[in-house]
Amino acid sequence: MNMKEIIAEQLLSIGAVFLRPEEPFTWASGIKSPIYCDNRLILSAPKTRTIVEQAIADTLKKYYPGAETLMGTSTAGIAHAAIAATILGLPMGYVRGEAKSHGRNNRIEGRLDKGAKVVVIEDLISTGGSAIEVVEALREAGAEVLGIVSIFTYGMKKGLERLAAANVENHSLSNLDTLVEVAARDGRIAPEWKERILRFRDNPSDESWIKNN
Questions:
Q1: List of residues 6+ apart from 204 with CB closer than 8 A
Q2: How far apart are CA 169 and CA 166, in angstroms?
Q3: In sequence order, what are the residues at sequence separation of 6 or more whose Cβ sits closer than 8 angstroms to the Cβ of residue 12?
Q4: DSSP H helices in 17-167
Q5: For residue range 180-207, what is the model confidence (pLDDT) as tens digits?
Q6: Given this model, what pLDDT does residue 105 score?
Q7: Residues forming beta bridges with residue 152, ordered by sequence position
């Protein structure tokens, strides 16, 4: 198996990414989804955590060898940034959703020098909005953001377009296409569900994927 397949298998095995096409989840927006993602569970699974964190470190070394510091997204990316930074011997910090209302009113925690070459560590990319906000905050603070390393991406068109428009590069350890292939191969979903789940990915507001046609 390649790395994307290994990560997908690990995420499925611990329930961090869970496919339930015949009983869809309902998002806060009201959209019905065949997939649920909670990558925080990685931290509670030592074997999976070791594989994922080493994969993050390897991805950083491959695509961003010039990285000088890692910045986690708050809150899900913080622990992954810290562990990967420890493996690589790099500084790390994190970016809050908004600036503190007390003390030094920081939004960016940790040392960040002007012009520092930064890589953002994110657990999940869906529509890309929160990750782009983090990148913009770092750019405003004078950092050179090389890109994002994320654990998983749905590969949604909206997310891809928003990242491209913001000139943000993302490398995910695994993605929905790989996940459905692995899930079907392992008997976690019926093979005929693969195409229908990807139809959801391409148009989340269209519920035709739920129907048997």
A1: 31, 33, 156
A2: 9
A3: 18, 19, 179, 182, 183, 186, 188
A4: 46-63, 78-88, 129-140, 157-165
A5: 999 999 999 999 999 999 999 999 888 8
A6: 57
A7: 124, 174
